[in-house]
Amino acid sequence: MLGPVYYYVIIGGGMAGLQLALRLKNDVFFKGKKIAIIDPSFSVKKDTTWCFWEKETGQWDKLITKSWKEGNFKSSLGSQHLKLSPYRYKMLTSERFYKYTLAEIKNSKHFDLIEDEISEIDAVKMEAIGKNKTYKGTHFFDSRVPSEYFETENYTKLYQHFKGYKISTEKPIFNPEKFLMMDFRLKYKNSTSFTYILPTSTTEALIEYTFFTPYITEEAIYDKQLKEYIANFLKIDSYTVLQEEEGIIPMTDFPFEKNNTSEITKIGTGGGWVKPSTGYAFKNTERKISKIIENIKSGKEISKDLFQKKFQLYDRIFLDVLARRNDKGEKIFTDFYKKNTVDEIFRYLDEKTSIKEDLKIMFSLFDPEFIKSFFRKF
Ligand SMILES: Cc1cc2nc3c(=O)[nH]c(=O)nc-3n(C[C@H](O)[C@H](O)[C@H](O)COP(=O)(O)OP(=O)(O)OC[C@H]3O[C@@H](n4cnc5c(N)ncnc54)[C@H](O)[C@@H]3O)c2cc1C
Residue 17: CB within 6 Å of ligand 1? Predict the structure, then answer.
């Protein structure tokens, strides 16, 4: 039996689905429109720490656990102190995000949170087909990652994969005023691999060991690298692991956006909202949602101009270099952080730079491998 016809059906109540739902709820333009969010489970997930940068204040400030005005970049080729002002690097736990967004959305009678798993969308009948029921809507926002992405071998596929320990130490070790963006000094073989540290106090920090590689490693390798970094680089002999975190994020030029139609807009990882060259998605999601809302209000196709072709090309070239020459990562990132200002770096990664600024960054990274990849990928 069919239920109501929803104005929007959001498939997936994760980071992207809930950010979208919250923005729709808080915008009077959508007042009174009935919206369904469908997910197999609306439990509060405690498994992720999201970080992003933004200038001074922002939408999530009341949920932020910690923010930093300064950071460091380190590698065996040189180090760089990162003075972020006017930016801040901000950290948010998924626990706070889910508690807050779910409470806000549950407060509105216009949202139905439905526990179900969607197998497909029938764009002719305008129905999302779930295990339990079928849901009618006038538009579908879909955060499922298409199976084609897993099956195809036609695109560059790297993975940002990592494991982290949230540790506490007896003695004060960390400087909570500075985070560590990347430290390449402890590498795994010839791969692009580094350590990342988010210190929340003098005795507590989240330490992650991360790879940007075309393959996934065994769990024991992250543990080995983490333990070695803690012992030999941080010189900590006694600590307690309070929590562990791990993840795999796609870094790919797979064209997720080709699945957008006038009936369905793909969102989140499944929509290609993870920046391919960095694996960051949280702030990107906020920006893409702003664009979606602007498109809806001006009567345009909902997914119009969600992506900029020139940045897609830059990312494609960068991924091709890393896929072919994974050993080059340390040098590329060292040049990136040492030869450009924080403002240039963040504006470039936020896809806000002009061609002239892009060229400056490209020259700073110069390596013949980029030329090869340009001709392979253009
Ligand atoms: C451990 C970890 C740390 C990360 N850290 C950062 C970071 O610091 N900064 C950053 O910018 N990005 C980070 N990312 C990347 C990115 O922000 C996250 O992966 C983010 O969760 C992606 O949002 P999403 O909504 O696409 O996916 P999810 O948050 O995973 O949500 C997808 C939802 O869809 C639901 N779903 C799946 N299949 C179906 C179905 N068939 N029917 C209905 N619902 C379904 C799932 O249950 C889930 O709730 C991190 C990722 C991970 C894994």
Answer: yes
Start-to-end CA distance of the chain, whole Å, equals 50
Residue 8 gets which letter from DSSP? E
- CB of 37 sitting under 6 A from ligand 1: no
What are the Cα distances from residue 357, in Å, to 84, 271, 343, 372?
19, 27, 11, 22
Question: Sign of the CA dihedral 356, 358, 361, 366?
Answer: negative
56: left (phi over 0), alpha (psi -120 to 50) or beta: left
CA 221 to chain centre: 23
pLDDT tens-place string over residues 62-75: 999 999 999 999 99
Task: Judge whether 266 and 257 are in contact, CB under 8 Å.
Answer: yes
Question: What are the tens digits of pLDDT across the range 104-132?
Answer: 999 999 999 999 999 999 999 999 999 99
Residue minimizing CA distance to atom 5 of ligand 1: 50
Q: Is 195 in the pocket of ligand 1 (CB under 6 A)?
A: no
Q: Is the confidence at residue 2, as pLDDT, over 70? A: no
Q: Which residue has the tokens 């990136």?
A: 336
Ordered domains of the chain (ranges, CATH): 5-47+93-152+253-297 (3.50.50.60), 157-251 (3.30.70), 310-377 (no CATH)
- Residue 36, pLDDT > 90, answer yes
Q: What is the pTM of this model?
A: 0.97
